[in-house]
């Protein structure tokens, strides 16, 4: 159907209304070349196509009629094709000449109608090329037509609608056809036909002046007339066709040109009236109709606007009723016309007279225009054209630039003028946001809320910083919080987009960031992130990384805290942010956006302010910075620290009795308090944050010293500030102190002041750092006295006395009754009291107090006494409840005499057996941290074989659940008297003071942090004193606490911390205990207990730790250079352990561990050689006998000379040793070969051992002695079972 060519009288078929011929218009001649058909002026009368389909028919009837016409066309196509073929075959020249007189006589150029198809292409470039081609061909046709003398004769027998009164008598028939075709095309919805035909109409009307615009407008009305029967898509296509046709005429520029040539014409007025009439037919036509009018207005002079456009019928009525019905398009048109006319009186009441930005944005006028703003949501989600214009009027582009210029301007009069303009802009923005955004849009439907967010996004790029808090108002923040708190909300994506764009707009501008944070938090009561489930505020706060930016943020937070107007409770009126169609959850299920308690916002301010300093850090590559840059950074950070410190001190420590403002003439500052007195919880929070601030400052000072920089003393600044405020009569502490607390408070102030002067005098000596650490502890303790009254006054007084004794230079004869008692001969050592006092601060103190204690302890740990060290160790060892397998009736202090807490074996039930097995499996992860060094691989290699040595009946529950106990050095508590014991218990009692704790579980959980803090002090001690003999005492207590923690629930953290300290600070330390004070008897006892732990503990972590500790103790013994007789006790310990291994099935000793010990200490193996030979020969367990053969082989290898450097004396001694034990060795071989194991693998181990014995004998040239020691039956066993390995030992046959 599509492959057949149409007859010369047919037109191109288009889908839609442009497909139908224009009311009987037919081309006179159409020829179809290869590249398109050519339209000429003449045709045969009989070739005329059937008449066009009437538009009044129904769609189904039109469809049937179109099918009938298509069939007729196809029939004519086939007939014409046959006729043309017949003519070509007959080759009759006379007939050809007579059939073409019209073609030869026609002087008009051809016209390609394929351009109409290209005008509807989806490709814009194809449409533009088609429009250019259309204009070029029609211009040539019109020029040729105008040159004809007798136009009627050229029209031929049938004229192309020339007889109709369409006002286009001077146009060529082809041009008239094209105009009609273009008008029909703009009403088509096929592809881009509407856009393409409108482009063609614009180009043709604008390029060919012969075409009269009035005629085209008349054709548009006639051809695109909407009948009463048209409905739906058909009527909509006609309306849009009118719109695009009018737009084409306006864009062509012919209307303005014709009026300029003849200002008496009513063309402009008629065109405007028709477009206004079209705009009133459908709501969606109104805004584009205004765009059409403005397209024409841009090309008209002002006179035409006043006399034609504004006087057009319907214009005045449109403006008058716009505000009543809410017509944003009329308002948009009025604003655009006002830009040209500058006389708002002719525009009605829509614009104020005289017009100005300030008059337009008055509250009353905005209320009058509110219906127009509300109704602009009809084009949602697109933003109406009115809003960008209003945004430009509200905030001109130059306003933000003027603000920056005024901020940096040095000329006073310019600055005042700029600030006045800013004031007008800010006033307009305030009125607009209050009336339009909040009053009209946010309080209405979802569409209008969406519009409000979009409008604010238009304002953001040019919004002055001073107006951010006006835009981010209470209602807007509530609206965002309501929407973002519910992901199912219809506006959730819109709110997310708004928040994202807001954060992007903030960028790196500190002023914008501060304003946005303050607005969001102020109107959400400090809970914007928690309500919206976002990290918006947190991300903004984290971006403050410069000193000026942090300082700006801190000052705004201070204002937010003390400004009562900002903290007034505004109820969360749901009607302000939702309407009846909004998705609202139950008030019971949904947290309200704003709480009535403003303390939450103040809590956020207090918590956020010190956190700003975390982002204010030197670059990681600090060494590359110039020294001046480092100093500048330190100064900026100190300035921020001091501002935060003053705020926290004023709000947390003091209150004013005379109003809310106090001026300090000494500091030349004014301090403010909120009108409502701060709650005690807020004051406590301020003090806690102040302690953290001082702690961070102390840590930062250490890093500055390492980098060679001078530091600023924030603690000294704080004490001076505190003393100054205390001297102001109208300022007092926020709470009344008791006599003891007040006394301690003043003593701490006095001591800190003296130490500060002494520190400055001693700088830069190292002892000044010690005084600095002591001062910070005093400051922290002073704050702690205020924070927790009645708890630290005693410790503060004791600490004050200790420091007076430690630093006599600061006392200057100042003595008291307590000091006199302290000087008594029976009084304890000053260092012991100091340690005792420091320990008393740890149980319930805050983190900053503990850090200050650690810093002080770092300087005094070198002078600590054994008694003081013992106090600390007893805290780590102390447990509030007995181990899980210990009898409930046993005394809790009975284990004080047990050094490592290894309990005797006891019967347990089956459930404990399973529990123990699970514990061993769980301990595998920590064994790597606490494992032995070289022997761990061999220790774990034999786990499977361990299970074979103990059969079902032998693996009793008693062995599996055996507790680790009954190991003691001597009376470990002998160094503590009753008073010291009582003081240690008082530390524990402090944990429960003023706390209602029920049960031992809660008590144990409170004791754990105390132990961890004491462990930190012990770690400092070990780090600074790795070679002192006291390390052995620390080791003993830590191992005992580590073992006990396995039988105490809830002590996992303590166990891990102790294990880490033992490994890193003791076993792997660069130094180890040395000196004459170390006694072998003590080391032997420690070694014995470690070996028992390694052989009997059911916990893999404990066993592994015991093996490592054994290596460490042996290293200490070896370094002391004891004599052989003294070392006999060490050998005896190993004999006992190995004897237990052979005789008791409960022993868990790993042969690999003993082998590693002998490898590191060969002398020990030589001493145990005889014992091992005898035990292997008489061992009852086949498995353990085979295991120990490897150990004997290891000792024999040490007897063989491996290098020339070995001395002859040592070689001969080892030869004598082996020769001395040849009889025992032969007996062992006889026993092994006589009772070979049943398993093939074990028999192989026996054969390999015997072979290695023969190799050792040969290497030491003891063949003869060996043969003499062999019994006949042993000889025959070796000869029969060892094969070729025994050949060198065979005796010659007689």
UniProtKB/TrEMBL annotation:
Region span, Disordered: 1-108, 568-596, 904-978
One annotated GO molecular function: DNA binding
Compositional bias segments (type: Polar residues): 573-585
InterPro entries (alphabetical): ARM-type_fold, DNA_pol_V/MYBBP1A
GO cellular component terms attached to this protein's record: nucleolus
Bias (Acidic residues) ranges: 904-927, 943-957, 969-978
Species whose genome carries this gene: Elaeis guineensis var. tenera
UniProt protein name: rDNA transcriptional regulator pol5
SUPFAM superfamilies in alphabetical order: ARM repeat (SSF48371)
């Amino acid at each position: 159907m599509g492959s057949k060519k149409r007859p010369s009288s047919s037109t191109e078929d288009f889908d839609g209304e442009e497909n139908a011929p224009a009311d009987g218009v037919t081309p006179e001649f159409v020829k179809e070349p290869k590249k398109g058909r050519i339209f000429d002026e003449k045709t045969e009368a009989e070739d005329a196509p059937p008449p066009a389909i009437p538009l009044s028919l129904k769609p189904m009837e039109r469809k049937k009629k179109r099918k009938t016409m298509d069939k007729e066309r196809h029939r004519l196509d086939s007939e014409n094709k046959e006729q043309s073929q017949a003519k070509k075959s007959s080759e009759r020249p006379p007939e050809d000449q007579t059939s073409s007189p019209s073609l030869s006589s026609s002087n008009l150029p051809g016209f390609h109608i394929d351009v109409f198809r290209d005008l509807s292409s989806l490709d814009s470039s194809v449409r533009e090329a088609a429009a250019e081609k259309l204009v070029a061909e029609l211009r040539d046709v019109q020029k040729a037509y105008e040159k004809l003398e007798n136009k009627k004769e050229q029209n031929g027998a049938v004229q192309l609608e020339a007889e109709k009164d369409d006002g286009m008598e001077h146009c060529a028939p082809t041009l008239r056809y094209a105009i009609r075709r273009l008008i029909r095309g703009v009403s088509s919805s096929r592809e881009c036909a509407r856009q393409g035909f409108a482009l063609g109409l614009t180009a043709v009307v604008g390029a060919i002046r012969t075409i009269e615009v009035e005629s085209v407008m008349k054709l548009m009305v006639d051809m695109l007339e909407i009948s009463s029967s048209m409905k739906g898509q058909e009527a909509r296509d006609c309306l849009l066709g009118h719109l695009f046709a009018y737009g084409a005429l306006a864009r062509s520029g012919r209307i303005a040109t014709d009026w300029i040539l003849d200002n008496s014409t009513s063309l402009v007025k008629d065109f405007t009236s028709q477009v206004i009439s079209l705009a009133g037919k459908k709501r969606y036509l109104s805004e584009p109709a205004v765009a059409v009018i403005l397209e024409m207005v841009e090309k008209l002079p002002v006179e035409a606007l006043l006399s034609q456009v504004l006087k057009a019928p319907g214009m005045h009525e449109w403006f008058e009723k716009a505000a009543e019905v809410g017509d944003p398009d009329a308002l948009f048109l009025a604003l655009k016309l006002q830009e040209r006319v500058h006389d708002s009186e002719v525009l009605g009441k829509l614009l104020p007279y005289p017009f100005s930005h300030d008059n337009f944005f008055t509250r009353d006028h905005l209320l009058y225009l509110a219906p127009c703003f509300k109704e602009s949501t009809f084009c949602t989600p697109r933003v109406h054209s009115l809003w960008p214009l209003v945004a430009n009027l509200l905030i001109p582009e130059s306003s933000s630039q003027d603000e920056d210029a005024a901020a940096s301007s040095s000329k006073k009069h310019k600055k005042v003028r700029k600030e006045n303009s800013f004031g007008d802009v800010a006033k307009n923005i305030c009125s607009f946001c209050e009336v339009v955004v909040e009053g009209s849009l946010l309080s209405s439907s979802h569409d209008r809320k969406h519009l409000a967010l979009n409008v604010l996004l238009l304002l953001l790029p040019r919004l002055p910083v001073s107006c951010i808090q006006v835009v981010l108002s209470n209602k807007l923040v509530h609206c965002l919080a309501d929407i973002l708190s519910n992901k199912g909300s219809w506006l959730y994506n819109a709110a997310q987009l708004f928040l994202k764009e807001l954060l992007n707009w903030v960028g790196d501008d500190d002023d914008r960031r501060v304003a946005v944070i303050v607005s969001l938090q102020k109107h959400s009561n400090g809970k914007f992130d928690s309500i919206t489930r976002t990290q918006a505020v947190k991300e903004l706060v984290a971006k403050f990384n410069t000193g000026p930016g942090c300082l700006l943020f801190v000052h705004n937070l201070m204002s937010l805290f003390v400004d009562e107007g900002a903290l007034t409770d505004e109820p969360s009126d749901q009607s302000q942010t939702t309407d009846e169609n909004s998705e609202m959850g139950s008030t019971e299920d949904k947290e309200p956006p704003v709480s009535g308690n403003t303390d939450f916002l103040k809590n956020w301010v207090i918590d956020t302010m010190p956190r700003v300093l975390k982002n204010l850090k030197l670059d990681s590559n600090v060494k590359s910075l110039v020294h001046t840059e480092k100093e500048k950074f330190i100064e900026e950070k100190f300035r921020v620290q001091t501002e935060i410190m003053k705020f926290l001190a004023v709000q947390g420590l003091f209150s004013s009795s005379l109003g809310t403002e106090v001026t300090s003439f000494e500091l030349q500052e004014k301090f403010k308090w909120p009108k409502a007195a701060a709650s005690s919880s807020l004051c406590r929070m301020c003090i806690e944050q102040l302690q953290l601030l001082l702690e961070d400052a102390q840590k930062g000072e250490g890093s500055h010293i390492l980098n060679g920089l001078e530091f600023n003393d924030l603690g000294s600044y704080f004490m001076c500030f505190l003393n100054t405020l205390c001297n102001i009569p109208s300022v007092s502490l926020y709470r009344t102190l008791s006599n003891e607390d007040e006394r301690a408070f003043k003593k701490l102030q006095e001591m800190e002041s003296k130490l500060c002067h002494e520190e400055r005098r001693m700088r830069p000596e190292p002892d000044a750092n010690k005084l600095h650490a002591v001062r910070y502890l005093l400051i922290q303790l002073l704050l702690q006295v205020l924070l927790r009254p009645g708890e630290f006054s005693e410790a503060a007084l004791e600490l004050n006395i200790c420091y007076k004794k430690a630093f006599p230079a600061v006392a200057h004869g100042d003595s008291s009754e307590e000091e006199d008692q302290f000087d008594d001969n029976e009084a304890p050592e000053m260092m012991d009291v100091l340690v005792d006092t420091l320990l008393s601060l740890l149980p319930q103190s805050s983190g900053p107090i503990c850090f200050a204690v650690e810093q002080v302890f770092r300087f005094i740990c070198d002078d600590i006494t054994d008694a003081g060290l013992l106090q600390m160790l007893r805290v780590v060892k102390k447990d509030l409840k007995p181990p899980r397998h210990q009898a409930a009736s046993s005394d809790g202090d009975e284990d004080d005499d047990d050094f490592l807490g290894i309990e005797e074996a006891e019967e347990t039930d089956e459930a404990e057996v399973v529990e123990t097995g699970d514990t061993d499996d769980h301990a595998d992860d920590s064994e790597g941290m606490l494992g032995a060094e070289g022997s761990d691989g061999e220790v774990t290699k034999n786990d499977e074989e361990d299970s074979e040595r103990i059969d079902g009946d032998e693996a009793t529950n008693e062995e599996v659940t055996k507790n680790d106990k009954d190991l003691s050095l001597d009376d470990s508590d002998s160094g503590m008297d009753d008073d010291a014991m009582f003081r240690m218990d008082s530390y524990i009692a402090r944990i429960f003071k003023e706390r209602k704790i029920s049960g031992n579980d809660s008590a144990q959980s409170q004791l754990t942090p105390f132990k961890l803090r004491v462990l930190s002090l012990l770690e400092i001690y070990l780090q600074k004193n790795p070679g002192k003999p006291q390390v052995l005492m620390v080791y003993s207590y830590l191992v005992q606490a580590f073992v006990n923690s396995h039988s105490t629930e809830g002590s996992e953290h303590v166990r891990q911390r102790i294990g880490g300290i033992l490994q890193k600070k003791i076993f792997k330390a660069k130094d180890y205990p040395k000196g004459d004070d170390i006694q072998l008897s003590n080391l032997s006892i420690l070694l014995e207990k470690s070996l028992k732990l390694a052989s009997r503990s059911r916990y893999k972590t404990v066993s592994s730790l015991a093996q490592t500790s054994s290596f460490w103790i042996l290293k200490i013994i070896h370094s002391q250079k004891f004599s052989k007789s003294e070392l006999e006790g060490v050998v005896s310990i190993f004999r006992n352990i190995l004897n237990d291994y052979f005789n008791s099935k409960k022993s868990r000793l790993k042969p690999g561990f003993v082998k590693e010990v002998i490898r590191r200490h060969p002398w020990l193996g030589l001493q145990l050689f005889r014992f091992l030979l005898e035990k292997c020969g008489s061992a009852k367990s086949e498995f353990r006998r085979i295991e120990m053969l490897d150990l004997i082989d290891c000792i024999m290898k040490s007897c063989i000379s491996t290098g020339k450097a070995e001395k002859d004396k040592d070689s001969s001694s080892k030869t004598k040793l082996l020769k001395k034990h040849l009889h025992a060795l032969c007996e062992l071989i006889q026993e092994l070969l006589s009772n070979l194991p049943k398993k093939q693998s074990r028999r192989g181990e026996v054969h390999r051992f015997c072979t290695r014995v023969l190799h050792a004998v040969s290497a030491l040239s003891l063949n003869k002695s060996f043969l003499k020691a062999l019994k006949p039956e042993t000889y025959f066993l070796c000869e029969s079972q060892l094969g070729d390995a025994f050949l060198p030992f065979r005796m010659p046959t007689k």
